[in-house]
Specification:
Layout (H helix, E strand, L loop, with lengths): L1 H24 L11 H25 L5 H25 L2 H18 E8 L2 E9 L8 E2 L6 E2 L14
Antiparallel strand pairs: 1-2, 3-4
Helix pairs in contact: 2-3
Length: 162
Protein backbone atom coordinates (compact mmCIF):
# COMPACT_ATOMS: atom_id res chain seq x y z
CA UNK A 1 0.00 0.00 0.00
CA UNK A 2 2.75 2.45 0.90
CA UNK A 3 4.69 1.52 -2.23
CA UNK A 4 1.67 2.32 -4.40
CA UNK A 5 1.31 5.75 -2.78
CA UNK A 6 5.01 6.48 -3.22
CA UNK A 7 4.91 5.31 -6.83
CA UNK A 8 1.89 7.55 -7.62
CA UNK A 9 3.52 10.54 -5.90
CA UNK A 10 6.75 9.97 -7.82
CA UNK A 11 4.82 9.60 -11.10
CA UNK A 12 2.87 12.84 -10.54
CA UNK A 13 6.08 14.67 -9.59
CA UNK A 14 7.85 13.40 -12.71
CA UNK A 15 4.98 14.49 -14.97
CA UNK A 16 4.90 17.96 -13.33
CA UNK A 17 8.68 18.33 -13.67
CA UNK A 18 8.55 17.28 -17.33
CA UNK A 19 5.75 19.77 -18.00
CA UNK A 20 7.74 22.61 -16.42
CA UNK A 21 11.10 21.70 -17.96
CA UNK A 22 9.89 20.81 -21.47
CA UNK A 23 10.02 24.39 -22.85
CA UNK A 24 13.55 24.80 -21.51
CA UNK A 25 14.79 21.54 -22.99
CA UNK A 26 13.04 21.63 -26.37
CA UNK A 27 15.10 22.75 -29.34
CA UNK A 28 12.21 24.42 -31.16
CA UNK A 29 12.05 28.18 -30.94
CA UNK A 30 8.99 29.48 -29.09
CA UNK A 31 6.30 31.24 -31.07
CA UNK A 32 6.86 34.92 -30.43
CA UNK A 33 4.63 37.46 -32.12
CA UNK A 34 6.81 39.65 -34.30
CA UNK A 35 5.95 43.31 -34.15
CA UNK A 36 7.01 45.83 -36.70
CA UNK A 37 9.56 47.81 -34.71
CA UNK A 38 9.35 50.76 -37.07
CA UNK A 39 5.57 50.99 -36.74
CA UNK A 40 5.78 50.73 -32.95
CA UNK A 41 8.46 53.42 -32.90
CA UNK A 42 6.38 55.74 -35.11
CA UNK A 43 3.30 55.29 -32.94
CA UNK A 44 5.23 56.05 -29.76
CA UNK A 45 6.79 59.14 -31.36
CA UNK A 46 3.37 60.33 -32.55
CA UNK A 47 1.97 59.86 -29.05
CA UNK A 48 4.81 61.83 -27.50
CA UNK A 49 4.30 64.69 -29.97
CA UNK A 50 0.57 64.76 -29.17
CA UNK A 51 1.37 64.95 -25.46
CA UNK A 52 3.80 67.78 -26.19
CA UNK A 53 1.05 69.65 -28.06
CA UNK A 54 -1.27 69.30 -25.05
CA UNK A 55 1.49 70.51 -22.74
CA UNK A 56 2.15 73.45 -25.04
CA UNK A 57 -1.54 74.41 -25.00
CA UNK A 58 -1.56 74.22 -21.21
CA UNK A 59 1.58 76.34 -20.94
CA UNK A 60 0.00 79.01 -23.13
CA UNK A 61 -3.21 78.98 -21.07
CA UNK A 62 -1.36 79.53 -17.81
CA UNK A 63 0.78 82.28 -19.33
CA UNK A 64 4.16 80.56 -19.51
CA UNK A 65 4.52 81.17 -23.26
CA UNK A 66 4.10 84.25 -25.36
CA UNK A 67 1.73 84.00 -28.31
CA UNK A 68 4.63 84.21 -30.76
CA UNK A 69 6.48 81.31 -29.14
CA UNK A 70 3.28 79.30 -28.92
CA UNK A 71 2.57 79.74 -32.64
CA UNK A 72 6.12 78.74 -33.58
CA UNK A 73 6.28 75.64 -31.37
CA UNK A 74 2.71 74.65 -32.17
CA UNK A 75 3.43 74.77 -35.92
CA UNK A 76 6.55 72.61 -35.55
CA UNK A 77 4.85 70.02 -33.35
CA UNK A 78 1.80 69.77 -35.58
CA UNK A 79 4.01 69.30 -38.64
CA UNK A 80 5.85 66.49 -36.84
CA UNK A 81 2.57 64.85 -35.89
CA UNK A 82 1.31 65.07 -39.47
CA UNK A 83 4.55 63.54 -40.73
CA UNK A 84 4.30 60.65 -38.27
CA UNK A 85 0.67 60.04 -39.20
CA UNK A 86 1.56 59.94 -42.90
CA UNK A 87 4.40 57.49 -42.25
CA UNK A 88 2.10 55.29 -40.15
CA UNK A 89 -0.48 55.29 -42.95
CA UNK A 90 2.20 54.18 -45.43
CA UNK A 91 3.37 51.32 -43.20
CA UNK A 92 -0.09 50.14 -42.17
CA UNK A 93 -2.66 51.27 -44.75
CA UNK A 94 -5.28 48.85 -43.43
CA UNK A 95 -5.44 50.75 -40.14
CA UNK A 96 -6.97 53.78 -41.91
CA UNK A 97 -9.91 51.64 -42.99
CA UNK A 98 -10.30 50.32 -39.45
CA UNK A 99 -10.40 53.87 -38.10
CA UNK A 100 -13.11 54.81 -40.60
CA UNK A 101 -15.17 51.74 -39.73
CA UNK A 102 -14.79 52.49 -36.02
CA UNK A 103 -15.94 56.10 -36.50
CA UNK A 104 -19.00 54.92 -38.45
CA UNK A 105 -19.88 52.47 -35.67
CA UNK A 106 -19.43 55.14 -32.99
CA UNK A 107 -21.69 57.54 -34.92
CA UNK A 108 -24.32 54.80 -35.25
CA UNK A 109 -24.21 54.04 -31.53
CA UNK A 110 -24.46 57.71 -30.60
CA UNK A 111 -27.73 57.98 -32.52
CA UNK A 112 -29.34 55.21 -30.44
CA UNK A 113 -29.21 54.98 -26.68
CA UNK A 114 -30.41 52.10 -24.59
CA UNK A 115 -31.77 52.43 -21.09
CA UNK A 116 -33.40 49.96 -18.70
CA UNK A 117 -37.05 50.70 -18.02
CA UNK A 118 -38.42 50.09 -14.52
CA UNK A 119 -41.89 48.58 -14.30
CA UNK A 120 -43.32 48.13 -10.79
CA UNK A 121 -39.81 48.47 -9.33
CA UNK A 122 -38.38 45.68 -11.51
CA UNK A 123 -36.17 46.02 -14.55
CA UNK A 124 -38.09 45.44 -17.77
CA UNK A 125 -36.63 44.78 -21.23
CA UNK A 126 -34.36 47.44 -22.60
CA UNK A 127 -36.05 50.26 -24.52
CA UNK A 128 -34.28 52.18 -27.24
CA UNK A 129 -34.42 55.95 -27.26
CA UNK A 130 -33.39 57.66 -30.47
CA UNK A 131 -31.38 60.82 -30.04
CA UNK A 132 -31.82 63.08 -33.03
CA UNK A 133 -28.98 65.29 -34.15
CA UNK A 134 -30.97 68.52 -33.65
CA UNK A 135 -32.27 67.63 -30.20
CA UNK A 136 -30.39 68.00 -26.95
CA UNK A 137 -29.03 64.59 -25.95
CA UNK A 138 -31.07 62.77 -23.34
CA UNK A 139 -29.27 62.34 -20.04
CA UNK A 140 -29.54 59.20 -17.96
CA UNK A 141 -28.86 58.50 -14.30
CA UNK A 142 -25.52 56.76 -13.83
CA UNK A 143 -26.89 54.75 -10.92
CA UNK A 144 -30.29 53.43 -12.03
CA UNK A 145 -30.46 54.36 -15.74
CA UNK A 146 -33.62 56.46 -15.45
CA UNK A 147 -34.01 59.29 -18.02
CA UNK A 148 -33.32 62.72 -16.50
CA UNK A 149 -35.08 65.94 -17.37
CA UNK A 150 -32.77 68.69 -18.60
CA UNK A 151 -33.24 70.94 -15.56
CA UNK A 152 -32.91 68.23 -12.90
CA UNK A 153 -29.70 68.02 -10.89
CA UNK A 154 -30.70 64.81 -9.10
CA UNK A 155 -32.35 61.62 -10.28
CA UNK A 156 -36.08 61.55 -9.39
CA UNK A 157 -35.94 57.76 -9.10
CA UNK A 158 -32.92 57.13 -6.82
CA UNK A 159 -31.69 60.60 -5.78
CA UNK A 160 -28.19 60.28 -7.25
CA UNK A 161 -26.58 63.57 -8.35
CA UNK A 162 -26.81 64.02 -12.10
Amino acid sequence: MIWTTLFLGLLISAVAAAYVLWPLLSRAAPDVPIEDDRLTDLISRKDSVLVAIKDLDFDRQVGKLSEEDYQRFNYRLRQQAIGYLQQIDKLAPQSAHLDEALEVEIARLRKTRTTPVAVNGKAAPVAEVAVLAGDAPTRFCTNCGQALAGQHKFCANCGTAA
